[in-house]
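Weekly sync, protein design subgroup
Attendees: M.S., D.O., the rotation student, P.L. (late)

Item 1: inverse folding check
M.S. brought a backbone from last month's batch and wanted to see whether the design step gives back something sensible before we order anything. D.O. pointed out we never logged the input encoding, so this time it goes straight into the notes. Structure tokens as presented (718 positions):
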């Protein structure tokens, strides 16, 4: 076995350097040339931009011990001339003083964790007072050595332009995009800032605004250090007069163009106010600034904001640098606009999903919902939704769904399915019948020619519907490919509801399966959790283990805990920090009606059934101390509904009366399948006259379907 130790990162970099540094290009190049003034003193030659070719070496390496002192260095390339990495000295001495805390923290972090920190844009001090911009990576030294290897890549301008353009478009988050642009601009100055029009920051539609009304907000600022009081930092709005000055400068003659203010005296004269100087000028040193507008091409062009690059006044911007700045900003402005569009879409979808979250549960059930969108580096907000709402007949519906895809296409489908489910459930359809309709809707939406979401496919979307009856304390549930709800009974173990797997909504006709209905007991005090896969999916766990973790977390909710706080606690304990999918959770705590607030009677379908029902209901209303006018209306409606059931149905008749808050709910069930309809019968037309009586005496009435027939319900104000 070969026991030769693997080369360290430092050795590998040094080997690479040896292949490219030409003879005579090491110490001789670093020493520079004699002073033509005749004093014979050797002055370091600090090339601003090495000549192209094999001598344009841009790679260097420094080894550090655990005290961050330099043990070895290879900075022989001409571009590093003047960077004095002396063995035994502290690496921190090569840094500008304001970068010392941040870089020290990064170095210590790599020492402790071994995790590399790569491609940090960093400035190094040269012996003549100038600075060199490098891309710095920090690596743990290979064993058995201890310490760190710091690799340095001098940021040659053209290479930097290419690398910056490639890096800036990697995120759709507008803050991260602005930060990437600011970090890239730091190669041309000491401080870089990105100020965006507030409409861009918030994702609004861009319009041409009057110059006096422009509203700029700081989106990014580098380097990361402590700034003086009053200075505008990311998230702060620029003062209104500062916004107007910048907008007038970059839009002069109606054409956005870069401007340069060369020194502190000119800056103070332009700003005209000590307050604005404190807000915009980074520090007390003399400084110049280049302001480059971010312009979106069009007719007319639209200014998205302005990039500011600050540097010391003794380093004025030359024409080539301004051209490089303008080229970089011009190349990346469209990335800022893409992030703006994503932000706008993200905000719209998020607002739609927030509207679907449950507001309150009512007297018979308590609900709480949590929705957390995916993190900004994901493809966008998805089609998850969760909703709970009371049904007209006193029951409560709990609905959760997950539409395939992300963005506005998924959001449009999500909104349509959610509203359709609510309408069908309110019309009295059972959960499995509602899913059958949603299945057809998804199939229609997949038709790219006539569907409402042309070009977008929602096939494979999932949905789970649960309907809670607060009188029987039972839940009827149907699922279309969705993960099973978690049930926590008050006196039993927590676990998922046993649901047979289903292929989901919109499957091919030959593969479609009937939707099953599962009915289970949920006594008062029970908790039900409905959720989407983003909450339980973890690359390191199976889906069953993820659901088990959720069951344990929900089981830990105390009966006295506030449900909204408990829901947030469950999500925070399970959801990953960097989410690639939306996280949705609905918790429902069952309360139900008290026994004294409900009564149910079963009557044979005989001619005396109506009279019998009136007697039973009248006695209960007396016990409940119901007003006389309300009691008369209830008795008349019960009589009409029972008589209608005897006339048109077979089998026993069920009468149920519920006292709910400020109202009464009356239900009459039978085995008939005919739907009562309110027609426009004439004065002498006997058919349907009873429904006109019901319609006139109730606040609302309707029909729901059961496995054995139907239930006609009517509500009254007490």
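Designed sequence read out in the meeting:
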């Amino acid at each position: 076995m070969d026991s030769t130790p693997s080369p360290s990162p430092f050795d590998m970099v040094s080997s690479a350097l040896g292949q490219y540094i030409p003879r005579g290009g090491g110490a001789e190049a670093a020493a520079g040339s004699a002073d033509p003034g005749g004093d014979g003193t050797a002055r370091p030659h600090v090339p601003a931009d090495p000549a192209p070719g094999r001598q344009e070496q841009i790679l260097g390496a420094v080894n550090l011990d655990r005290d961050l002192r330099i043990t070895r260095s290879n900075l022989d390339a001409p571009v590093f001339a003047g960077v004095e990495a002396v063995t035994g000295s502290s690496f921190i001495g090569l840094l500008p003083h304001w970068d010392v805390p941040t870089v020290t923290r990064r170095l210590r972090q790599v020492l402790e964790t071994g995790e590399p920190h790569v491609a940090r844009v960093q400035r190094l001090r040269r012996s003549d007072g100038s600075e060199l911009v490098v891309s710095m990576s920090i690596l743990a030294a290979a064993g058995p050595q201890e310490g760190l290897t710091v690799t340095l890549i001098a940021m040659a301008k053209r290479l930097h332009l290419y690398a910056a353009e490639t890096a800036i478009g990697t995120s759709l988050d507008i803050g991260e995009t602005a930060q990437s642009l600011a970090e890239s601009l730091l190669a041309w100055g000491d401080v870089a800032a990105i100020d965006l029009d507030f409409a861009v920051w918030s994702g609004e539609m861009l319009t041409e605004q009057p110059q006096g009304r422009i509203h700029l907000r700081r989106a990014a600022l580098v380097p990361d250090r402590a700034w003086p009081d009053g200075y505008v930092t990311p998230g702060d709005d620029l003062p209104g007069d500062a916004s107007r000055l910048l907008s007038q400068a970059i839009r002069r003659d109606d054409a956005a163009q870069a401007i340069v203010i060369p020194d502190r005296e000119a800056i103070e004269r332009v700003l005209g106010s000590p307050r604005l100087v404190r807000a915009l000028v980074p520090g007390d040193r003399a400084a110049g600034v280049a302001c480059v507008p971010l312009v979106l091409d069009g007719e007319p062009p639209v200014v998205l904001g302005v990039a500011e690059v600050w540097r010391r006044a003794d380093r004025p911007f030359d024409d080539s640098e301004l051209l490089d700045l303008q080229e970089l900003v011009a190349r990346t402005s469209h990335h800022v606009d893409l992030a703006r569009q994503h932000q706008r879409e993200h905000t719209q979808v998020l607002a739609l999903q927030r509207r679907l979250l449950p507001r309150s549960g009512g007297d018979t059930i308590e609900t709480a919902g949590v929705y957390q969108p995916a993190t900004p580096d994901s493809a966008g907000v998805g089609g998850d939704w969760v909703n709970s709402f009371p049904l007209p007949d006193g029951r409560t519906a709990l609905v959760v769904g997950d539409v395939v895809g992300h963005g506005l296409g998924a959001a449009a489908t999500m909104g349509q399915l959610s509203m359709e489910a609510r309408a069908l459930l309110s019309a009295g359809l059972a959960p499995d019948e509602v899913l059958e309709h949603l299945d057809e809707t998804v199939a229609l939406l997949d038709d790219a020619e006539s569907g409402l979401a042309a070009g977008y496919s929602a096939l494979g979307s999932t949905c789970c519907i649960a309907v809670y009856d607060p009188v029987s304390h039972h839940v009827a549930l149907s699922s279309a490919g969705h993960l099973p709800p978690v049930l926590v009974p008050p006196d039993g173990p927590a676990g998922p509801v046993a649901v047979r797997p289903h292929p989901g909504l919109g499957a091919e006709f030959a593969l479609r399966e009937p939707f099953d209905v599962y009915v289970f007991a949920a006594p008062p005090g029970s908790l039900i959790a409905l959720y989407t896969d983003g909450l339980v999916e973890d690359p390191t766990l199976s889906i069953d283990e993820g659901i088990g973790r959720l069951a344990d977390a929900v089981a830990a909710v105390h009966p006295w805990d506030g449900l909204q706080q408990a829901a947030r606690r469950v999500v925070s304990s399970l959801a990953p920090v960097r989410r690639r999918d939306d996280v949705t959770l609905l918790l429902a705590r069952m309360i139900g009606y008290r026994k004294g607030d409900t009564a149910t009677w079963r009557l044979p379908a005989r001619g005396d059934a109506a009279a019998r029902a009136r007697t039973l209901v009248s006695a209960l209303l007396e016990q409940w101390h119901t007003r006389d006018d309300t009691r008369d209306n209830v008795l008349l409606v019960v009589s009409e509904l029972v008589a209608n059931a005897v006339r048109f149905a077979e089998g026993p008749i069920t009468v149920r009366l519920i006292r709910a808050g400020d109202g009464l709910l009356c239900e009459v069930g039978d085995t008939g399948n005919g739907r009562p309809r309110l027609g426009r019968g004439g004065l002498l037309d006997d058919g349907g006259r009873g429904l006109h009586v019901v319609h006139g005496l109730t606040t609302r009435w309707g029909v729901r379907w059961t496995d054995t027939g139907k239930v006609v319900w009517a509500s009254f104000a007490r």
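Discussion: The first strand starts at residue 59 and ends at 64. The longest helix spans residues 319-356.
Action: P.L. to compare against the previous round before Friday.
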